[in-house]
Specification:
Strand content: 25-35%
Order of helices and strands: HHHEEEHEHEEHEHEEE
Number of helices: 7
CATH class of the largest domain: Alpha Beta
Number of domains: 2
Helix content: 25-40%
Shape: elongated
CATH architecture of the largest domain: 3-Layer(aba) Sandwich
Number of strands: 10
CATH superfamily of the largest domain: Chorismate lyase-like
Distance between the termini: 35 Å
CATH topology of the largest domain: Chorismate lyase
Structural class: alpha+beta
Radius of gyration: 21 Å
Largest sheet: 6 strands, antiparallel
């Protein structure tokens, strides 16, 4: 069997230290010079090893400061039969999910034309509008804009919006939304988003989806803007025999 290149070996060693918790998020890795000394390799090989970790979302490199371990990236499988919520996604990597309510109000559908179109609402129909910052261990990871027609959810306890909305819907109304479709866009953050996410300019992954409840009722339209190096979507499909 052909031996793996040295930079791959070094990258795999460092990945293992990150995955088993020896190196935690925010901790600094060895410098290129230290890696060269430890593994007896060239500066180019050490650089390729660190670049591999950057490409795979394990670390971030800052000129003049060094290489630092990133928060674990959450992978959401959107091909599964049961679509998980943000809170469950965070729990899947051992993180404590949370939400910060930025705005809640009842609006007319005409104020949000795209949401109204996706939910097939007339202009004067009312919708709940929920704007939240989603967090993982108190780190701001996403901005979420949710629209729900009032005719399907007449009352909403605003105090629960700093927790799991889906858990509230389940426990209070026995409502279980199922995702009908997803749309994705990559874009750069604007100043307002950077302020709310407490980050510098960064790539965002915009995910939009429509959810249904029983009898294919269009129940929810949500747009979520994820910090790009914190979240990954994975699509899988099953094939029939």
């Amino acid at each position: 069997m052909k031996k793996a290149p040295l930079y791959i070996t070094i990258a795999q060693d460092l990945m293992e230290l990150i995955q088993n918790g020896t190196l935690r998020s925010g901790e600094q890795l060895m410098t290129e010079a230290q890696l060269c000394e430890k593994y007896q390799v060239s500066r180019m090989t050490a650089n390729k090893a660190l670049s591999t970790l950057v490409a795979q979302g394990y670390i971030n490199r800052t000129a003049g400061k060094g290489s630092f371990v990133l928060e674990p990236k959450v992978t959401k499988d959107i091909g599964a039969s049961n679509i998980s919520s943000f809170s469950r996604d965070m729990a899947s990597v051992g993180k404590n999910p949370g939400a910060i309510l930025v705005e809640y109000r009842v609006m007319r559908a005409e104020e949000a034309p795209l949401a109204a179109e996706r939910l097939q609402l007339a202009k004067q129909e009312l919708m709940h509008y929920i704007f939240r910052i989603r967090t993982s261990d108190n780190v701001r990871i996403a901005l979420s804009h949710t629209h729900i027609p009032c005719k399907y959810l007449p009352a909403l306890d605003v105090t629960i919006l700093e927790g799991s909305l889906y858990e509230y819907l389940d426990q209070t109304y026995h409502i279980h939304p199922r995702v009908l479709d997803y749309n994705f866009n990559a874009l750069l953050s604007n100043k307002k988003q950077q302020e709310l996410l407490q980050t510098e300019s960064c790539a965002l992954l915009k995910s939009s989806h429509t959810s249904t409840i029983e009898s294919d009722i269009l129940f929810e339209y949500t747009e979520t803007y994820y910090v790009g190096n914190r979240y990954t979507y994975h699509f899988s499909r099953t094939t029939e025999a």
